Amino acid sequence: MSKQLEKVSFEQIRYANCWEDPFILIEAMENARGKRILSIASAGDNTFSLLTLDPEIIVAVDVSKVQLFLVELKKVAILNFDREKYLQFAGFSSCDQREDYFIEIKNQLSEACANYWTENILAIKKGIIYNGKFEKFFLFFAHKVLPYIHSKKKIQELFRPKSAAEQKVFFYKKWNTFLWRLIFPSVFNKRVFGNYARDPEFMKHVETTVPQFIKNVAEKHYQTVQAHTNPFLWFFLTGSFGKYLPHYVREENYEVIRSRMDKVVLHEGLIEDGLKWYPKISGFNLSNIFEYMDPHLFELVSKQVLDGAEKGAVIAYWNLMITRRISEINPKEVSHRKEQSERLKEKEHGYFYKNFIIDVKL
Known about the structure:
Blueprint: H1 3-6, H2 22-28, E1 36-40, H3 45-49, E2 57-62, H4 65-80, H5 83-90, H6 98-105, H7 111-119, H8 121-126, H9 133-145, H10 152-159, H11 164-175, H12 178-187, H13 190-196, H14 210-222, H15 231-238, H16 251-259, E3 264-268, H17 271-277, E4 281-285, H18 295-307, E5 309-319, H19 326-329, E6 334-336, H20 338-347, E7 355-361
Parallel strand pairs: 1-2, 1-4, 2-3, 4-5
Antiparallel strand pairs: 5-7, 6-7
Helix pairs in contact: 4-7, 9-15, 12-14
């Protein structure tokens, strides 16, 4: 493990949901259909969504034991619960029986996972999708900060379907108020965002002005019609997903994913550890892991990925505030799908990311 990762606390769940757009990820990974996929586990959502590609196997890798406990719990719950019951258990819909549901599946969890969730039963009672550090920060903003800036009526108006021109007028005339311009950047400065949403070490290599960057990408997205049905934006501004559910729990996907859930294998450790056990990978979902690395570590991990990749393997990942691209440092081994990357980036719901990268091993 790198010296930087050694400074990061992995004792708490950082992400209770995945915040990268699974729709563009699935489209980018089409060439990995029916083959081996390696996916950063995170909260599990996008790993589950990739099951719609009917892979041979998906190796869900994470250095955080507690993130894997979350993924294991979701996996076992999906295997045992129909969609309505899972929505209740996870927190997408109201329920006062979550502890009872947990008891139903507890004996199917690994001992360590069962013990963890028994000790954190309050998180289950509240709904596991609200239990991440990132989500708690969003909930704080939605419930404690935003009400001082905009009314519930105005928030609903932002989401009301309208033309692109009307959305832009609404943003400038009604949303982009003095208080919005004053408070929004102060909540998303590097110190606050690092300490309360992510981790200070994860912001170490960020050189851009964080509040200005987040303000710019937010303003651009809020003016588009894509904002009307964006599940990420809905959660950020209201504190729940409402009717805009993540891909893996949507009605048209749930049973397909459930029927293939046994193809997901959880592996604690670094990418290189996962590749030792499961080589010859044809698709990589690397989330935005390169964001956290210095240039030397980025080159090292890139080489490990390429060593474990089959010819033609698709490597998909995001840049948030730091630009990292495998094809830029390994142009002889990797081709960058620039046009496809930019086309998918234009329609993604994860509007806060700087780049979506699709590289292919030659």
